[in-house]
Every structure is written in C-alpha cells, then in structure tokens.
User: Which sequence fits this backbone?
C-alpha cells in the first residue's frame, strides 16, 4: 500500500473514490533513471533538481534516491561539465527516453447521458454534436490540470483513451466516454508513460505551450501526493 507523503487529503488509498486527484511518485522509476545516467558516466547532479520541492516530486524522496545511488552535487565534483551532470528532466523522467516518475490519476464521480446540442462546463464551449455520454472526473485547474487542456488532451479509463471536453473547472473536468462502460469510482489516468501508449506530459506540453517543469511542478505541489514502489 502506498503511503501519503504530502497534500491536503491524507485518506488511506483504496478506501473509496478520492475527492482530489492523486500524484504517485515512483521510487523505482527515479532509481532506474539515476542508474541509467550512471551507466553513461554521470556521477553528479544539479542542485536545481530540488527547486520547488524537486519539481513537485518530494525533495526528501529524490534526495534519498540520489544518495543511495552515489550521486553528489556538481559543486562537490571537480571538473563536472553540463554534459556530466544529472538534471531534473532526466532524473524525474520528463526527458524523452526516460521513465516518468509521477503518475497522475483522478476518480470518476458520476456518469450521465448528454443529448445532441447539450453543453457541459463553463460557457458550454462544448456542445454534443450527437447523443453521447460523459463522466465527471476529479481534477481541475486548482490541481494543475490547466484550463487549456480542455478539448486538447485525453485521459485513460480502463486502458481506453477519452477526450477532456469543455472548459476545465477548478476541481473537476468532463470526459466524453461515449458508449464505454465506465462506473463511478473508476480511475482516470491524466499522466502516465507515453511509451506504454498512455496520456503523457508531452501531450500537455503540445496543448499548452508551457514547459514540462512548469506543468509537472504545479501538479506535484497541488495534488494528493503519494510515494509508490
């Protein structure tokens, strides 16, 4: 079972639908990224990794992984060059070819039918072109799921991708599920591993024009955050 390491809701995992999205930070992913860097001859890290609580990944957790793998700050390693210093993008799995350490999930709060012409969310910027079904999912701009993601990215529910529609609200968003079997309490994956075909931070970067570090830090600092194996 995961243990909560920060956030405003410390309820025990698995006890029912969450009232807020959950960011799970994987120790094994951090370790794998660190070891891959060491295999390429990198032995030091940039202290900027720890900016904004290690980009929302929990500075204590990240520091523990680096120490366990024998990394030292670059100012303690003579002759360190930028190419020989581990940065946050690589360690945290934000860079291409690395394993994302943070997975962001929400919970389906309700499912409803939407008739042709009916709209959802603020201003009804999305109106159904035909009869469909939508799910209300925890997670909004207050938790780092920025407004410009509405109508631009997908979430995954039970391995199937579904688009966010309408404007992202403060604490929730609406996902079009059409005829998929989705029930209250189901997990909705916002951020996962692109190599596994899951919604990813790269999708968010393309949709918003923001930096990966800006997006992932906001998510990590504003959601329920848990350490995962």
Assistant:
């Amino acid at each position: 079972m995961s243990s909560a390491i920060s956030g405003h809701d410390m309820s025990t995992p698995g006890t029912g639908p969450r009232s807020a999205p959950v960011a799970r930070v994987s120790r094994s992913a951090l370790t794998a990224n660190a070891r891959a860097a060491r295999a390429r001859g990198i032995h030091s890290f940039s202290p900027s990794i720890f900016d904004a609580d290690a980009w929302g990944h929990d500075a204590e957790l990240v520091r523990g992984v680096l120490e366990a793998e024998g990394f030292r700050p670059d100012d303690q390693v003579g002759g360190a060059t930028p190419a020989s210093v581990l940065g946050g993008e690589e360690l945290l799995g934000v860079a291409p070819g690395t394993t994302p350490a943070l997975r962001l999930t929400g919970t389906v709060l309700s499912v409803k039918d939407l008739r042709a012409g009916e709209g959802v969310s603020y201003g009804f910027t999305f109106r159904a072109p035909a009869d469909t079904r939508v799910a209300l999912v925890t997670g909004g701009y207050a938790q780092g799921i920025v407004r410009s993601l509405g109508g631009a990215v997908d979430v995954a529910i039970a391995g199937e991708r579904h688009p966010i529609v309408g404007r992202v609200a403060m604490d929730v968003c609406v996902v079009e599920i059409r005829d998929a079997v989705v029930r209250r309490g189901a997990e909705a994956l916002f951020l996962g591993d692109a190599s596994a075909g899951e919604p990813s931070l790269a999708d968010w970067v393309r949709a918003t024009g923001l930096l990966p570090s800006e997006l992932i830090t906001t998510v990590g600092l504003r959601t329920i955050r848990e350490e995962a194996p």
